[in-house]
UniProtKB/TrEMBL annotation:
<protein>
    <submittedName>
        <fullName>LysR family transcriptional regulator</fullName>
    </submittedName>
</protein>
<keyword id="KW-0804">Transcription</keyword>
<dbReference type="InterPro" id="IPR036388">
    <property type="entry name" value="WH-like_DNA-bd_sf"/>
</dbReference>
<dbReference type="InterPro" id="IPR050950">
    <property type="entry name" value="HTH-type_LysR_regulators"/>
</dbReference>
<dbReference type="Pfam" id="PF03466">
    <property type="entry name" value="LysR_substrate"/>
</dbReference>
<dbReference type="InterPro" id="IPR005119">
    <property type="entry name" value="LysR_subst-bd"/>
</dbReference>
<keyword id="KW-0805">Transcription regulation</keyword>
<dbReference type="Pfam" id="PF00126">
    <property type="entry name" value="HTH_1"/>
</dbReference>
<dbReference type="InterPro" id="IPR036390">
    <property type="entry name" value="WH_DNA-bd_sf"/>
</dbReference>
<keyword id="KW-0238">DNA-binding</keyword>
<dbReference type="InterPro" id="IPR000847">
    <property type="entry name" value="LysR_HTH_N"/>
</dbReference>
<feature type="domain" description="HTH lysR-type">
    <location>
        <begin position="1"/>
        <end position="58"/>
    </location>
</feature>
<comment type="similarity">
    <text>Belongs to the LysR transcriptional regulatory family.</text>
</comment>
Length: 294
């Protein structure tokens, strides 16, 4: 039994005639009679009382007719849903974004994509690079922005941005008037870090260790605005990417780090060799074009 058997059965009930149903379906009457007979044999019941002049459903036929209509409608809905997806009329894209990247570019790109495909929605998750990578690997997110390197055997990558980091400190700090600061000069400064879900947390600790000291961490946060406020209150110094430093208030100052310089390489990642919804695939292609132009 397949969906055609049920659809032919529905037509016979609708027209109360094998002949009229066959004409409507542009098939022969013997063909539709055989389909109904096969359906009865598959289900092990009689669908019509054939002893009467008019076609009348048996009790079993009535039950099956009601269910057949529901199944046929569900099948038609499935076809419509698939058509919508294939034509990108609808869909949901689950995307992970770290809260410490420049907030200007991605909202603009998502907005322009939404104009093109207004019925595709975005479910955005803000988290650190480590958590985003875990969620993409586990299928919770279709794609996400992370700090490279990522696992090359597990993810496809679309390079997004390379940038350096700067020290963020209070304008009255003795080092604030400098054009550049060596990392080792911060050895005795209290540090305000992003929390352990952020790759930047580990990267700062490693850079400080290579510079010959272990930083004294006085606070951690997941929000760069809060870290900025703590630096403005002279709680400590912080390290931010250049793109975020462009948005800082005059309550703090940012200074370039040298010897060694610090930076990161951001990329959009998604799982290798795994199914991606049509909407997510289209967005990734769109993102690649936008990033190339950017």
């Amino acid at each position: 039994m397949d969906i055609k058997h049920l659809q032919y059965f529905i037509e016979v009930v609708k027209f109360k005639s094998f002949t009229r149903a066959a004409n409507h379906l542009f098939i022969t009457q013997p063909t539709i009679s055989k389909m109904i007979k096969n359906l009865e044999e598959d289900l092990g019941v009689t669908l019509f009382e054939r002893s009467r002049k008019k076609l009348v459903l048996t009790d079993a036929g009535q039950v099956i007719y009601e269910q057949a209509k529901s199944i046929d409608q569900a099948f038609r809905n499935l076809q419509l849903e698939l058509d919508d997806l294939l034509n990108l009329k609808k869909g949901v894209i689950r995307l992970g974004l770290p809260p410490i990247i420049d907030t200007g570019f991605f909202p603009k790109m998502i907005g322009s994509f939404h104009e093109k495909y207004p019925n595709i929605t975005f479910h955005l998750v803000e988290d650190g690079s480590k958590k985003i990578e875990e969620e993409v690997a586990g299928g919770g997110l279709h794609a996400g922005v992370v700090v490279l390197p990522a696992k090359e055997d597990e993810f496809e990558c679309l390079s997004y941005m390379r940038e350096d980091f700067r020290v963020v400190l209070h304008p009255d700090h003795p080092l604030a008037a400098r054009d550049e600061i060596e990392l080792s000069e911060l050895a005795f400064e209290p540090f305000i870090l992003f929390n352990k879900d952020f790759v930047l947390h580990d990267r700062i600790l490693s850079a400080c260790n290579r510079a010959g000291f272990h930083p004294k961490v006085v606070s951690e946060s997941s929000q760069w605005e809060f870290i900025e406020e703590m630096a403005a209150c002279k709680l400590g110094v912080a390290l931010f990417p250049e793109s975020i430093c462009c948005h800082l208030s005059n309550k703090v100052r940012s200074v370039r780090i040298v010897n060694p310089s610090m930076g990161w390489h951001l990329a959009v990642i998604w799982r290798k060799d795994h199914y991606l919804p049509y909407a997510a695939r289209e967005w990734l292609q769109y993102a690649q074009k936008q990033l190339n132009q950017h």
